[in-house]
Amino acid sequence: MGSSRIKAQRAERRAKVEEMRRAQEARDRRNRMITWISSGVIVAGVIGGGWYLVDRSQDQNAAEERAAAAPIKGERTFKDLSQNHVTKPVDYKMSPAVGGDHDQVWMNCNGDVYDREIAEMNAVHSLEHGAVWITYNDKAADTDVSALKDKVQGTPYTLMSPYADQSSPITLSAWGRQLAVNSASDPRVDTFLTKYVQGDQTPEPGAACTGGKSA
After folding, report:
1. pLDDT of 181 higher than 90
2. What CA–CA distance (Å, rounded) separates 194 from 10?
3. I want to staple 52 with a disulfide (CB 3.0 to 4.6 A). Which of 45, 118, 138, 208 is the partner?
4. Residue 51 C-beta-side C-alpha neighbours within 13 Å
5. φ, ψ (nearest 5 deg) of residue 179
6. Mean of the per-residue pLDDT values of the chain
7. In the prediction, which pLDDT does 70 show?
């Protein structure tokens, strides 16, 4: 019974993430269509018997796929990260950590916002499950912190906490990926979340983001 319940919970979480991605894709498609109409592209589509729009859509999809495969501008990539469960402190080579040996218990990451610094070894385990960890230091504006909290609370497989020992005001971390930004309004924030929440880099996709450590 316990195994069936866990499988059901994982399926539900994957469905939430997939629903979020489909909604974002639908908004993007709608915005592109509005742009085409306002710029007169629809006229060329009518003249071309409708095939122009089909071809343009296919070209756009191909461009998006190439963009998704390409690194986000300014992001750092880390490879060959170990995944052992350990009890002794780990000396991570990056701040915040984006992977490596970690505690056997993950931090809850179902849109959880922590007002105090959290244990890095637990947060790394969350990244292993496909979460994105947003951190900030005292250089981050209060308005940016508030905006990021709202964003995290509405996004499954994310967590957020202060982190004093980082060079940028705001840092986004996924397993093996990291991006530093100065503002919550930076468009790369949404791009990073869309790409790496339960993204292809995830070592254990679908693993739980609840039932772990909460403080």
Report:
1. yes
2. 19
3. 45
4. 2
5. -140, 130
6. 83
7. 82
Cα of 78 vs its chain's centroid, Å:
16
- Assess whether pLDDT exceeds 90 at residue 184: yes
- Parse the chain into domains and list their residue ranges: 2-69, 76-196
For residue 165, count other CB atoms closer than 10 A to its CB: 10
The token duo for 93 is: 């080579």
State the Cα–Cα distance between residues 116 and 29, nearest whole angstrom. 39
- DSSP character for 169? S
Q: Which among 106, 101, 47, 74 has a CA at the least distance from the CA of 189? A: 74
Token pair in block for residue 45: 């589509």
What 3-state DSSP class applies to 179?
A: strand
- What local confidence, expressed as pLDDT, does residue 58 receive? 63
**Residue 133 · residue 211 · CB < 8 Å:** no
pTM: predicted TM-score of the whole model, two decimal places? 0.72
Q: Which amino acid is at 214?
A: S
Report the topology of domain 76-196: Glutaredoxin (3.40.30)
Query: If we measure between CA atoms, which residue out of 101, 132, 107, 100 comes closest to residue 122?
Result: 107
Cis peptide upstream of residue 96 (ω within 30 degrees of 0): yes
| The token pair that represents 208 in the structure block | 């739980």
Tell me the backbone φ, ψ of residue 87, rounded to 5 degrees. -110, -20
Would the pLDDT of 19 be above 80? no
- Residue type at position 115: D
In whole angstroms, give the CA distance from residue 105 to residue 210: 11
SS3 92: coil
